[in-house]
Amino acid sequence: MSTSPSPAPPASWLPLDLLFDNPVFAGGAGLAGLGAAAAISRKLVGTGVSTLKRRLLLNVEISKKDDSYEWILKWIALPRPQTGFITSRLTRVNQMSMKTARLQSKTGQGQYNFFLQTGYGKHILRHKNAFISVNREKQSSYNMQTGEPHETITLTTLYAHRHIFEDIFGEAYALARVAQEGKTIMHTTNGTNWQVIGEPRKKRPLNSVILDAGVKEKIADDVKDFLAMQEWYVDRGIPYRRGYLLHGPPGSGKSSFINALAGELDFGVSIINLSERGLTDDRLAQLLQKVPARTLLLLEDADAAFVNRRKMDPDGYNGANVTFSGLLNALDGVAAGEERIAFLTTNHIERLDEALIRPGRVDMTVRIGHATKYQAAEMWDRFYGDIDEDGKGRERFLSRLEALGLFGDQLPTSTAAIQGLFLFNKGDMNGAIDMAEGLIPKIYEAEVAVGVKTPA
Ligand SMILES: Nc1ncnc2c1ncn2[C@@H]1O[C@H](COP(=O)(O)OP(=O)(O)OP(=O)(O)O)[C@@H](O)[C@H]1O
Ligand SMILES: [Mg+2]
Fold this sequence. Notes:
This protein is an alpha/beta fold. 38% of the residues lie in helices and 21% in strands.
């Protein structure tokens, strides 16, 4: 081993001792050192705390897109028993936000339901023996379709208390079930997404919709048979879908029947109005891919798509409305949801194309026509059965309608018109008989007035 003299230090190089002898430098280095040490220790503490947090705490994040979001929001806002002065002050939810739901009212007037729900920000609550921190926040990202910011709720508790979540979700779900019992949830479209319309509606009893003899049973039995055959379809690799087409004049009870049937099956309803402007083929296809589970898909005004069938521009743009091929593709394209019960309605079956009536698209076509004598009698019984004990009033009413020619093809009246007459004469059957002339369709009266028709 040989030693060689170390090279001379460069001119700019100074021994460290010399530097520290310099009081100005020493003060600065000391400060910088302290700062660095503080930063490192802060970082270490920070990392330590976050590691500790990760190990000791459990976070559950729920996105607004998840079904449980609304349940949990309602669960958090529940009044809780106040235990102890400090706990009760610590666990009060002080930040609330208002949720207003518009209820559907028969009179057409708005009815509103208000309730307070947990607002944005952090809250602490106590459930059984666990403290839970709740953080409801809006994210900076947006849903491109609706323009609404994404939202989450994060529930945090001690890892040791993780089993409390099963309890919380169980309670929140049970709460939602009770609130929805006897109700039908209606979904409508918002961009390419589905959203619940207002509060769940009270179920409409199936027997409140009066169709011609046997029609309701025929459809309801078919749907029930289909629901019982899921395995059969799956085993054979056939998409588990069934379609119904209900056609007939306005006010014959098509939509009412579908809503009542959904209630009977304990299903919700997902409605798309095919005549809606802005409903493009793409949007329809996307919506049909994710129809909410356990709902009947209701495609209203199916004829709208047929009016549009030749409207494709040379550049391939289909315009702002759904087209015939768009509807067919959405119904049976590869992308269409695998499980589905769809009801299509129309007032103009003559405008539809044969191609629609194909298994999987439409398996059953049913006409829901103008009011028949059978329906008028059944409706009478529902409204006046209790006061018309001997049925004489019903006989007079039916004879009057017959005399007016309302059961023939010439002057057909609608079940909606009969219901309107009965509602106007609630509890007054003679009033209903006296006003029966009002059931004559207005179009007919207009035609007589201008001399197109002569009175019967
Ligand atoms: N057959 C019926 N039984 C009981 N109510 C009926 C019947 N038909 C119509 N109505 C009443 O008339 C109103 C309109 O009925 P509905 O909306 O179901 O008719 P629709 O056939 O869907 O009409 P449209 O073709 O215009 O959509 C509802 O309030 C409904 O209660
Ligand atoms: Mg309708």
